[in-house]
Amino acid sequence: MADETAQKAGKQGTDHPILSCDGQELKRLLEAGTAWLERHKDAINSLNVYPVPDGDTGTNMLLTMQAALEEMANASDHSASAVAHAAAHGALMGARGNSGVILSQILRGIARSLDRKGAFNASDFAAALKEATVTAYKGVIKPVEGTILTVVREATEAAVTAAAEEEDLRLVLEKVVDEARESVARTPSLLPVLAEAGVVDAGGQGLFIILEGMLRYLRGETVEVALALETAVDLHVPGEGEYGYDVQFIIHGQDLNLEEIRNTIAAMGESTLVVGDSTTIKVHIHTREPGTPLNYGASIGSLSKITVENMQEQYQEFIRSQAQPARPPSAVSLEEICGIATVVVAQGPGLTRLFESLGASAVVPGGQTMNPSTEELLKAAEAFKTDQVIILPNNANIILAAQQAQKLSEKNIRVVPTKTIPQGVSALLAFNYQADLETNARVMEQAAEEVQTVEITVATRSVQLNKVNVKEGEVIGLLNDTLVASGRSPEQVVRDVFRQMKAEDYEIITIYYGEGVTQEEAQALAARISQDYPEQEIELVHGGQPHYLYIISVE
Amino acid sequence: MVEKTSLGKIEVSPTAIASLASRAVLESYGVVGMSSRSLGSGLAELLRGESHKRGVEVRLEGNEVIIDLYVIIEYGTRIAAVAQNIMSNVKFAVEKSLGVPIAEVNVHVRGLRVSSKD
After folding, report:
1. Residue pLDDT, tens place only, A294-338
2. In what order do the strands lie in the sheet with A362-365?
């Protein structure tokens, strides 16, 4: 094993420059970074004061990276592109906490930059970090400096400078790690709350540790890491009590001394939060002895809203959920949060992805030319643990099948009769995590009715309908499922439909372009529409749906 | 929200709480905009500047503070994680400044922004 590691690391002998890394090596780099992060997890947890001092940054980043590693095992091939995309996907699915979400965006940027690359050299690496920084900064309105964002940005600058002069990836990564270390050290000067607490930023430190772990691999310092690597894919199982209990309660009393209580509680555990006034004080603490703070609280006032959670149990539950091989193909599982699953019918990669990211629990393929059977819908609904399911058919011809499924199932199913994709999107957006099934079904149906749907397709036969003459092969426009216009070009038809519906009275126009339409064509159409309707906000989304050239939502 | 002290009372209006909350939301990672709560389906109404407060609703029920947030999230992030983060960020920031517990923070994801395709 040590020999094998030495051989693997042979390329990384200190005298040979490393000019390029392929997917396998990218995988090992990320594994080494994760293993190194695992070793430093507790130290990182203890730094966590911003944005919420809950002491879980290291754990969250580790769980996110481990999700990325697991997914890397399923990479379609050994190219850097495939490995990076798999890692980004895994991190997205497993992202936990603020820093975990940011980390997933960093990996997403890297994957995007390495797209279609079999291997990467120093300048590719710098470009990938650059894209990572851009992607990470896009995800927030007010980027807070002195956090992981600052560290990734400054490390990227070092990479770009170094890659302009150096071809050796190891030397470039050295510069990156040095800059990351210094950047982390500067975080307290940028973010006052860190200076007050006398710590550096936890997320920034986590990123630095990952980069340092990667550098250790390139330097061939892999022996101890390699041992950890073997277990990196098996998730670390904490010892009894390692995570302790998460205790929260409120103390009610008179003339409570906030300062004194805060100091007393702080001595009883970690990640304490004590806020309130002289009559009501909220306490949050991580401790191995939940009784101690509770007894203390009860001695000075009356307690309410007491919750004690075993963090180890939470952790193991998370591991169990991660270990399940077949997770539903959804970026977000609403049913986990609220006990209501949503089944959406849609066709096309873009629309499927859109619905998944909006929180659909499952997307059943189907649409105008391919109606899913009652059985397919039933199967999708029965697959969930939860008993409450909402189905969005998104097509008039599928509503009946959905209602059949509702009758046949023993589960509590509601069909929100959406007839078009835009109605489905509006309905899903109106879904409320906290409302019950009935309320959601009602609110979603209302939301669906508020949106206007324009569909552009090609006539399959000649017909005269609603005073519109259509010849086979002509482009036709439907407004809310009714034929209203025909013409030679999609643009002409869209503009005709918009005139008829008085699109200027609405606010937002979203265009989903289909599989037969190029991005350039769609952009040209969007540009034309925005000339006609300068007041309206126009959005262009790749739907990839068959049959319809364009599906347009107007609201 | 009224607190009585020996010198008099301190009143914190819902608008002030909304300001605190909206600041915490805007600093929450993954949030790229806020959506007007009045809009029916609000696919993409990104509010700018001061109007961000329109995406925050603060209700006082008895002595409990309930905050509702209407947000637009970056496409390609894990929405459940981002929403959880918003809840804890806002709860912590407001409790820290205000000194009173927040009973509920409800996050309504009103839309997604696709800033770049993968």
Report:
1. 888 888 888 877 777 776 665 555 555 444 433 333 334 556 557
2. A362-365, A340-346, A388-392, A412-415
Give the helix, strand, coil percentages of chain A, each rounded to 5.
55, 20, 30
Domain at B2-113, CATH class: alpha beta
* CATH architecture, domain defined by A328-449: 3-Layer(aba) Sandwich (3.40)
A406 touching chain B per CB within 8 A: no
A356 has a pLDDT exceeding 90: no
* Residues A61, A103 contacting (CB under 8 angstroms): yes
Per-residue pLDDT tens digits for A483-514: 888 888 899 999 999 999 988 888 888 899 99
Say which of B31, B88, B95 has its CB closest to residue A275. B95
Nearest CA to B43 out of A503, A298, A213, A506 is that of: A506
Domain ranges of chain A: 2-232, 245-317, 328-449, 452-554
Q: How far is Cα B21 from Cα B15, in angstroms, rounded to an integer?
A: 10
Alpha helix locations (H) across A139-252? 148-165, 169-190, 192-197, 202-218, 223-232
Which sequence spans correspond to the domains of chain B? 2-113
**Average pLDDT value for chain A:** 82
Domain A2-232 identical in fold to domain A452-554? no
Q: Which of B96, B99, B115 sits opposite A277 (nearest CB)?
A: B99
Q: Which two tokens stand for residue A489?
A: 């070009």
Q: Are strands A475-479 and A468-470 parallel, antiparallel or unpaired?
A: unpaired
Instruction: Write the CB contacts of B21 (distance below 8 Å, at least 6 apart in sequence).
Output: B56, B58, B67, B69, B90, B93, B94, B105
Q: How many CB atoms lie within 10 A of CB A33?
A: 24
Instruction: List beta partners, residue A554.
Output: A452, A509
Class of domain A245-317: alpha beta
pLDDT category of residue B110 using cuts at 50, 70 and 90? confident
Superfamily per CATH, domain A2-232:
DhaL domain (1.25.40.340)
Is this prediction's ipTM beyond 0.85?
no
Phi, psi (5° rounding) for residue B69? -120, 135
Write the DSSP symbol of residue A367. B
Whose CA is closest to B102, among B92, B113, B112, B111? B92
Give the pair of three-digit tokens for residue B19: 């300001």
CATH of A452-554, one of 2.60.40, 3.90.75, 3.30.1180, 1.10.1060: 3.30.1180
CB contact under 8 A, A359 and B109: yes
- Residue B79's SS3 state is helix
CB contact under 8 A, A510 and B115: no
Nearest CA-CA distance, residue A286 and chain B, Å: 16
